[in-house]
Write a structure and sequence with these properties.
By secondary structure, the chain is α/β, with parallel strands linked by helices. Helices cover 42% and strands 15% of the residues. The chain starts with 11 loop residues before the first helix and ends with a helix.
Amino acid sequence: MYFPIKQKPACQLKWTWSTIRLYEGSTSSCHRVDKEFITADNFETFHNTPLKLQDRTKMLAGEWPGRGCEHCKHIEDAGGTSDRMHHLTIPNLTPVELLTDPTAIEVTPQIIEIYFDNVCNLSCLYCWDGFSSKIRSENKRHGRFEQDGVVIDNRAQLVDDLPELTEKFWNYMERNRSGIKRFHFLGGEPFYQKQFDYSLEWFKKYPCPNMEFNIVSNLNIEHEKFKQYISSLKELVAKQCLRRFDLTCSIDCLGPEQEYVRFGTDLELVKRNFEHVVTEDWIYLNFNQTLSGLTMKTSADLIDYINQLRATRQINHYFSTTVMTYEFLHPRVFGQGFFDNDFEQILTNMPNKTQQEQTAKDYMAGIQKEINQHDQNMLEIKRLGVYLTELDRRRKTNWQSTFPWLTNLLETV
């Protein structure tokens, strides 16, 4: 069954999906939209908060609710394929309440995406302290930076009652696990978090034979330890404690650009781990790119590398543009046509044999259309230079040698 609400711009995610960030006590209807805060006292309402109910009501009335939904609206206005449109093509995620009342706004979640804490081993330059303990430590060590409109500082307000919220979450899962179809574990880096080990034991105690378990990982984990985790997950699937296991590998591009943008990455280790799971054909394997202005020029190389591994199995491709922290990291600041040659190579390299591959290719073409709606913004590009120079000071890196094309661009102004 497909999502029954046909009124545009109704979004299946608004009814089916809840992102929960326990470490800051927040929830949202997907990771792109504005969050609301929850406490241990009202945790049970995380999927039906006042603003989520308001957003669903607006969508039923044919209105875009705002609060971050502009991400999809802008792509659709430019003639592209948005996340909203893509998720409408995914069947069997309809909340049970909509089966009898297609106007219901208080519903039960089908997908839960959980961030237990911000423990992470990387300091990705488009990330923030809420998702990375490494960034939080770096910002504490170097202090607040502010220059020419660029601010680097810790922003996350970590809750004091995380243990209580975590207990509330697992109690909720114990009672409602039979109705949850997908469970996404993110971070930080899941393989470095205590709650990941706990989750493996929890699934042994409370089997979820109808649930799909998805981990989003940077794969920057010691190889033998990584293999042990994969073996444990294989056992959970074999014993029907899980319906299936999905591994979504976060990697944006290749070469020095990857190790600069995702600071702390050992690219050879990442590739070794990725190539190991390629041989594990029971895993539903994905890779996810965050497209920033700094990764566009080697994105095609990454896709070419993945294509070589696709000779033996399917590997799904997901991606999005970075909008989490700084506008100057978004590719659109470089303006219409700037990345057209790069997009041409990216789209040439992207296969379209399966439905997922065709959807990904259409989505990538839509991102290009959306970027090409914008004029070049040299103020933001200059701010990017300021930001990278400060990161170089903190991390002993050199952005000019890593991104010579950006060096040449800034030298012309």
